[in-house]
Here is the input.
Amino acid sequence: MSTSISGFSKLTKTEKIDWIVSNYLSNSTTAKDTITQYFNSNQKLQQLHDEFIENTISNYYLPLGVAPNFVINGKTYAIPMAIEESSVVAAASKAAKFWMERGGFKTTVISTTKIGQVHFMYSGEEKMLQAFFNTVKPKLIADTKSITANMEKRGGGILDIELRTKTNELDNYYQIHATFETLDAMGANFINSCLEQFAKTFKAEAEIHLDNDIDIVMSILSNYVPECLVRAEVSCKIEALADKGIDPETFANKFVQAVTIAEVEPYRAVTHNKGIMNGIDAVVLATGNDFRAVEAGVHAYASKNGKYTSLTHAKIEGGIFSFWIEIPLALGTVGGLTSLHPLVKVALKILGNPTAKELMQIVAVAGLAQNFAALRSLTTTGIQEGHMKMHLMNILNQFDATKTEKESIINHFKTNTVTHSAVVSQIEKLRQ
Here is the structure.
């Protein structure tokens, strides 16, 4: 019977597991074995993983794959991807090879500005508040010097701070809106430290110089970074799209139509963009970055004009097919898990130890490639043929298929359509 507990975090890992097994898993030895079999035999490495979060009871594995043959701005990459969805790495690899033969991907970092805000309430006269802010602004920046010194030595730091009035949306609501350059760090801790110092100084000075009190609500970075942008694109002559019996002109036109549908139809746009994020999240996760922050910021960007729409765009102009994405990505290659997780270090090394700007470009390409592969399938053979072939092994593993059974069934479906029921039927035939 499930129950609550006080002081769970103070228990040893073994005690935590025993409590979970006893209270939530019916004292199942199988469940306990499953939890413990994922422990790493290297105790130092296991301790490192245990200390990433609180209340760790085990490790949770995701496959780490590699999609090779990505040519980006003339340089060839093998891109590491951590993801559980069966067809993602295969689709990315296929798109990479397709475009490798057609000039590769071109990328540009448009801007790298990140944002943080101090949210506060003020019931006094707005003109007085603005005059006070103009006076205190230099002190706000000066009081963060101990925080920003090292970042400034590397060429980053606070770019600007401004007062924003939000009283039309919420009575008495204002912001200190700050912009930052954090170079190769994602910068969350740096930004939040600066913001908290802004708030402390602002509150202290306001108590001296303003009649009405300033009520600081919170100080926090924003994961919406519309000025931290990267663009990735591919293009070629329409006739160069010919591949395995596909008529290039028909394909190009249907592809552009598919993208346009995602631009105008939110129901399609959500699934369209989810496919893009299959590629983006997989690389973000493999490189130790925060995929939840990236997801939130990207989807906000897809809605920036008041309607949720496609992140990618396509056109045919002068006989040239072009396909591109422009996307906000706040990423880091130093600090956090990038400095701790051994596989993250390996993933970054595979990528040539990129700067944050280079990683932005690689990640954007992964998203564009994923979307190209999906739309190519959707507008030609359909998505299920390739997806179900990749899913075949998962179905076989669900039924504990032996090596001999797997070989036989994989061979059978080289010339037959894969469906769950068809695979089950084939397994049953073999086992009769």
Observations:
- The two ends are 41 Å apart (CA to CA).
- The mean pLDDT is 94.
- Strands lie at 64-72, 75-82, 106-109, 114-122, 157-165, 173-181, 214-222, 229-237, 312-317, 320-328.
- DSSP finds 15 helices and ten strands in the chain.
